[in-house]
Design a protein that fits this description.
By secondary structure, the chain is an all-alpha fold. It contains 8 helices and no strands.
Length: 183
């Protein structure tokens, strides 16, 4: 691969070869970012495509300061959020039931693989998954999430708490399944 700065400058001049190199360098990583938020691969592919269109349309705004990958990642995350707001605005409104903690149960010592944990995150309701991923994985503040997703700071905090509660229950259920499989 050529020097990244040369590739970026080529993209700023709308050179197809540079755009192809940039896409090939970042598509896999950015697809993983999109997939983390989307319900399936098709939706993630749509977000990836739309995100790269935005990257190429705005690459002249990149000032060669900071991480280019971080700049691209931010565009991808914003693209996913924009898609989420357009297609599912009603899901940003609190409509899922609050899970209540059951009685204290014996905890079974078992570990989970990264894939198992990510599968649990993927099972979150869309609004919880969005806030959880933005806060935990992307490092957004609640104020940033609220502004970006068009919700209140309180809703962001509530959705994060409920996502954590949902994941806790999911972990407990999987632990119980593992314990029963061993017994």
């Amino acid at each position: 691969m050529n020097n990244l700065n040369d590739i970026i400058k080529g993209c700023q001049k709308n050179k197809a070869a540079a755009q192809r190199q940039l896409y090939q360098a970042y598509a896999a990583k950015m697809f993983a970012v999109c997939l983390r938020y989307c319900k399936d691969k098709t939706e993630a592919e749509d977000c990836l495509q739309e995100g790269f269109i935005k990257v190429f349309n705005n690459i002249d705004k990149y000032g060669f300061k900071g991480s280019f990958e971080g700049w691209v990642r931010r565009i991808m995350v914003n693209t996913v959020i924009e898609m989420f707001r357009k297609k599912q605005p009603e899901l940003l409104v609190d409509e899922f039931p609050v899970l209540t903690d059951g009685e204290d149960e014996e905890v079974y010592d078992a570990s989970f693989t990264h894939d198992e944990l990510m599968a649990m995150v993927q099972e979150l309701p869309p609004k919880y998954k969005l806030v959880f991923n933005l806060y935990v994985l992307e490092g957004f503040s609640h104020a940033e999430i609220a502004q970006t997703a068009g919700i209140s700071v309180g809703t962001s905090k509530s959705n994060l708490a409920r996502a954590r509660q949902w994941l806790k229950k999911s972990v407990e259920n999987r632990l119980l399944e593992k314990k029963q499989a061993v017994c």
